[in-house]
Design goal:
This protein has seven helices and eight strands; from the N terminus they run βββααααααβββββα. It has 279 residues and is of the alpha+beta class. β6 and β7 form a beta hairpin. The longest helix has 52 residues. The chain is rod-shaped, with a radius of gyration of 39 Å.
């Protein structure tokens, strides 16, 4: 077999063989790699500088047509197909379908994780905001009762009942005189060390407690209310388990779904290449 690279002619035993430009390039590549096994990936990358393996059978089409032209009328076959050599893992990972499925799965997983984390943080912020609103209303009610000179025994009784009614949240209230004397302290009040924080914010978190402080408008003391964050943290822990399971499910489903979608996406391209080869 002789190839004239200058004139782009092919002859075998002085018989000229009419080849298309693609068939000529394919035969040239095979002859340059004579006595070597050439994979479909190598042929794809040589002809189109891309790996279409697994997307189309265009290589088989070209090889069959080239074999028909080169071996027709001759006893000795020049082009042989080696059966039983599976595509390498590197070849599969470089295929267009695999790369598309990988990108699709990565986008889906990242989007799902960001969405789930945002959902988790949104729920946490909402729960704390609702708790702050309740504490703010409690401060206003207590301050109003003190300013209206409501009987202290009645006020203490109301605070005790509220403390008992919100025992699961460890709600508490404290009334502090101007000289620092504790006038009233509900059952679930935290240790005094909780208030040793250097922060002067009216609403703050210290350890497991959400605290809210307000100076009485009459200037004769301080009102403290708060609640434990344990119930909110328990809700967030349950939500974290749900987020983890959902993320794991997305991680399992995204790759096969991405591979299936990549196959459908590359189907028109495969049809175009096959049609072009036929033309």
């Amino acid at each position: 077999m002789v190839l004239d690279l200058r004139t782009r002619h092919a002859t075998r035993e002085n018989k000229e063989i009419d080849l298309t430009p693609t068939e000529f390039s394919l035969l040239e590549f095979l002859m340059r790699n004579a006595n070597q096994t050439v994979t479909r990936r190598m042929l794809c990358e040589h002809l189109w500088e891309a790996n279409w393996e697994g997307v189309t059978n265009v290589i088989e089409v070209h090889i069959n047509r080239l074999r028909a032209k080169v071996d027709r009328g001759f006893e000795e076959r020049l082009i042989h197909t080696v059966i039983g050599i599976a595509p390498s893992r590197r070849s599969f990972t470089r295929s267009l379908r695999f790369r598309l499925s990988l990108w699709n799965a990565a986008v889906v997983v990242v989007t799902a994780c960001v969405t789930l984390v945002a959902l988790r943080e949104g729920v946490r912020i909402t729960l704390i905001h609702e708790l702050d609103q309740l504490l703010k209303e409690d401060l206003q009610e207590i301050s109003l009762a003190l300013n209206e000179n409501e009987e202290l025994a009645t006020l203490y009784d109301q605070l005790d009942r509220k403390d008992a009614g919100h025992a699961q949240h460890k709600w508490f209230a404290e009334l502090i005189d101007g000289d620092g004397t504790v006038r009233y302290q509900s059952q679930h009040a935290p240790p005094a060390s909780v208030w040793d924080s250097e922060s002067n914010k009216p609403v703050r978190t210290v350890g497991q407690w959400r605290l809210s402080v307000r100076t009485n408008t009459t200037g004769n003391g301080t009102i403290r209310v708060g609640a434990s964050l344990e119930s909110i943290q328990a809700d967030i822990a349950r939500l974290d388990r749900f987020v983890g399971l959902a993320a794991f499910g997305v991680l399992l489903v995204a790759p096969p779904c991405g591979y299936w979608l990549a196959g459908r996406a590359t189907r028109p391209l495969a049809a175009i290449i096959t049609t072009t080869a036929g033309l």
